[in-house]
Every structure is written in C-alpha cells, then in structure tokens.
C-alpha cells in the first residue's frame, strides 16, 4: 500500500498539472518499444471516516493554492494534504446544494460548481453565488474551459459563460439531438458536443452536425487529434475524412488524465483503461486492474506527479494511486543479493552494481540482463566503487587505481 508521506508534495505538483490546456481530458503517454506492459499501482484510500462528507466523489479540481477540491453527493470538500474542510448547504451561506457533479477553476481562479437537480454556482472571494437556477439547466455534469476566454457547461442543456453573461442553448438542432454526453475542444479550439443525435461542432455560436452516429465521449491522440467514441465501442478520428476507426472496450468516458509522456488513464463504463501509444504510433488501450473493486465506479481523475493520480469514485471515496517504483533485478549466480554493497546510477536507465568479496561489478540496464564489467588491462583488475557521473563520465575506484567509465567501457586515468 502507499504512504501518506509526501501527499502535500503531490498536491503541489497538481498545480502544474492543472495548467495543461483544456483540450480534452487526455494524456500523452511514454513511447515504448515492443508490447505495452501495464504498471503496478499502490493505493491510498480516503472515506467518510477520514473526513470526507460522502464516499461518492463525483468531481475533482485543484485550486490556485494547490488544494484538492472534491465535489461529492454530500457536499463540497477541500483537502490540504492532511485534513478535509467540508462545505455543506446547511452550514455554508450561498451553497444551495450538496449534490455536486462537476468542478472547475477558470482562468480568473473562480471555482464553478455544477449540481445534480440543482443550480449552477460559483465561488468568488470565498462566497458562493447562484448563476443559473435549477429549472434552467436541471443539472451540470461537465465544465470545460473554452479557447476564447469562456467556460462551457454541459448537462441537460449546453450553456456558455462569456464576458460576464451566461447564454443557454435552448433551440436549434443541438437541442433536438437529445442528451448531451460529453464536450471537448478539438486542436483548433472548436467545441465538440457528443449527443444521442450525433456529433456537433460549434462555430461562432452555431452548431453543425458532423456525424449522425450516437456519440458518447472523446479522447485525444499523440498528435492532438480528437477521437469520438460511439455507443457501439468504436472510436473514429474527428478530423479524418476517411473516418479511420479503432475498436475499443468501452462506450463512455467519465474522466481522463495525463499520467506521463504518451500515456493516458481513463475512467470508463467498463473500468479503468490505459491508453498507450507505441513507437509505431499505433493506438492501444489496455484494461488495468489496480482498483478492481472500484474499477467501474471511478467518476473523475486528476493527474499527480510522476505518474500518480487522484480518483473520485461512486462508492469508495477518494483514492490516490502511484506506480510502484521498484522491481527486482535478477543478478548472475556469482553475485548474491546480500553481496550487493554499492549501486551507482550512470543515467536514467543504467547503473553500475558492485558486489562484495571479489568486488565483482556489473552494468545493469533497464530491460536487459546484467553485464560483467571487466576493466581493460592490468592493473585495473577489480572495481571497488564509483562516484557521480559528470558530463556522461563516471569515475571508478579500482584495485589498480582511478579509472573512468565512458560509453560502456573502462579507461585508465593516466593523470590526476
């Protein structure tokens, strides 16, 4: 299991993650050769007994001071890394609903709140105020920062906040298309709307249907192109005239986050999925099983540092997950694990491992078998230790004197 040590630093790192432009909720994950190997995750769980107002966490957002804000079905909460501060409708002036489905901090650091069967609200300078009554929007399930100093709200209807005015779309083909499932921005900053009646793109306040198929969600590929998800488990690239298709294992995306270079994590109707882009740029989805009891119940994701993420779940509260950083390296029979007394990191994927007794040394590279490090020539016979690599050079202490490790070979040092 994970540790609560370092949670505050994780929250601080979320501020940087929150600054990513809001073009879809997707991630750009690391490029890897060969088959994609799913990561192993450790977890921390926070529930009512830890201070949450409800175990049903529907929305997550990070404020300008680095606090994690949670929208739950029992009220609003703010987490500082140690404690939860709870804001309830009963005890907080201006907050008129505890059933919060969506949260978003806009460019002005205003916190917007979308509610179930309730109004659209915002929090400015510590005060809550209602921006649209319940009967106008009914509920707001998603909030998205636009590309033109505006904020979009999606639920029973679509609405836009721009220059201090809230406009609600109440007629036209978009309204006739039925339920709105998801909104996103394409790479040109245009709004995409997924509905029962097809996929729409907004331009200058009007909505054009660009595909008639029922569309439920979006994700983004490594080139910034938007893919639309159809109800039949098929995704297609929005800006591709040939409508390139990709078979996937889900129909609805509840949330997504960038958890590393070229690697995305998604919460869907069929569980948690990792989106990985291989060296050939092929799109690959892999189901992951790090939270099997809650896999189908994750409703929101927010990326943390070094591949970690915060998960808001339907019934199991808040979870913090982080990839396990350690793996056992199988050493040759000549060196037991008890004999390894010194490890020197050469770069991000290479280390020199020095054994006790005979002072055997190996070069260990990620994804490869250890290779015996044999000093070139006498008297550099055995490696005793090594020191910090500088400009690609690692300095070694051997039984025959000082040497250098450069580009996989040992060179005697002729002068000190």
Q: Which short descriptors sum up this protein?
A:
single chain, four-stranded antiparallel β-sheet, elongated, mainly beta, 416 residues
Count helical runs: 3
Coarse structural class:
mainly beta
Total strands: the figure is: 36
Using only C-alpha atoms, the radius of gyration works out to: 26 Å
Query: How far from one another are the termini?
Result: 48 Å
Major β-sheet strand ordering: 1-28-27-26
The stretches of 5 or more residues where confidence is low (pLDDT under 50) are 12-36
The dominant shape is elongated
Percent range of helical residues: under 10%
How are the elements arranged and paired?
Blueprint: H1 7-18, E1 41-46, E2 57-62, E3 68-72, E4 75-79, E5 84-87, E6 100-105, E7 111-115, E8 120-124, E9 127-132, H2 134-137, E10 140-145, E11 150-155, E12 158-162, E13 165-169, H3 173-176, E14 180-185, E15 191-195, E16 198-203, E17 206-211, E18 215-220, E19 226-230, E20 234-237, E21 245-247, E22 253-258, E23 263-268, E24 271-277, E25 283-287, E26 298-303, E27 309-313, E28 318-323, E29 340-345, E30 350-355, E31 361-365, E32 371-372, E33 383-386, E34 394-398, E35 401-406, E36 409-412
Antiparallel strand pairs: 1-28, 2-3, 3-4, 4-5, 6-7, 7-8, 8-9, 10-11, 11-12, 12-13, 14-15, 15-16, 16-17, 18-19, 19-20, 20-21, 22-23, 23-24, 24-25, 26-27, 27-28, 29-30, 30-31, 31-32, 33-34, 34-35, 35-36
């Amino acid at each position: 299991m994970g540790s609560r040590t370092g949670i505050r630093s994780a929250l601080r790192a979320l501020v940087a993650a929150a600054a990513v432009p809001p073009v879809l909720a997707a991630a750009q994950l690391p490029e890897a050769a060969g088959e994609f190997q799913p990561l192993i995750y450790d977890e921390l769980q926070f529930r009512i007994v830890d201070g949450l107002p409800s175990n049903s966490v529907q929305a997550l957002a990070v404020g300008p001071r680095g606090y994690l804000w949670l929208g739950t079905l029992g009220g609003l909460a703010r987490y500082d890394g140690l404690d939860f501060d709870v804001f309830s409708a009963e005890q907080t002036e201006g907050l008129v609903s505890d059933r919060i489905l969506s949260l978003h901090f806009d460019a002005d650091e205003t916190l917007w709140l979308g509610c179930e069967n309730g109004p659209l609200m915002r929090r400015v300078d510590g005060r809550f105020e209602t921006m649209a009554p319940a009967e106008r929007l009914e509920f707001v399930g998603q909030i998205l920062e636009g590309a033109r100093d505006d904020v979009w709200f999606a639920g029973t209807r679509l609405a836009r906040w721009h220059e201090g005015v809230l406009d609600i779309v109440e007629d036209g083909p978009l309204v006739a298309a039925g339920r709105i499932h998801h909104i996103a921005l394409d790479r040109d900053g245009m709004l995409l709307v997924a509905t029962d009646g097809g996929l729409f793109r907004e331009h200058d306040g009007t909505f054009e249907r660009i595909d008639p198929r029922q569309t439920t969600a979006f994700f983004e590929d490594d080139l910034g192109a938007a893919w639309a998800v159809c109800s039949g488990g098929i995704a297609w690239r929005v800006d591709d005239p040939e409508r390139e298709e990709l078979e996937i294992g889900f129909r609805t995306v509840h949330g997504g986050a960038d958890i590393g270079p070229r690697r995305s994590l998604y919460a869907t109707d069929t569980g948690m999925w990792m989106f990985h882009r291989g060296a050939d740029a092929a799109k690959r989805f892999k189901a992951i099983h790090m939270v099997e009891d809650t896999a189908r119940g994750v409703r929101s994701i927010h990326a943390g540092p070094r591949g970690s993420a915060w998960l808001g779940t339907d019934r199991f509260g808040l979870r913090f997950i982080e990839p396990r950083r350690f793996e056992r390296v199988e050493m040759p029979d000549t060196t037991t694990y008890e004999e390894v007394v010194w490890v020197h990191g050469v770069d991000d994927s290479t280390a020199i491992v020095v054994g006790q007794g005979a002072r055997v040394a190996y070069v260990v590279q990620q994804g490869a078998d250890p290779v015996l490090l044999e000093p070139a020539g006498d008297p550099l016979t055995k490696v005793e230790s090594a020191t910090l690599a500088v400009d690609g050079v690692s300095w070694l202490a051997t039984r025959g004197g000082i040497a250098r490790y450069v580009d996989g070979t040992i060179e005697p040092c002729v002068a000190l």
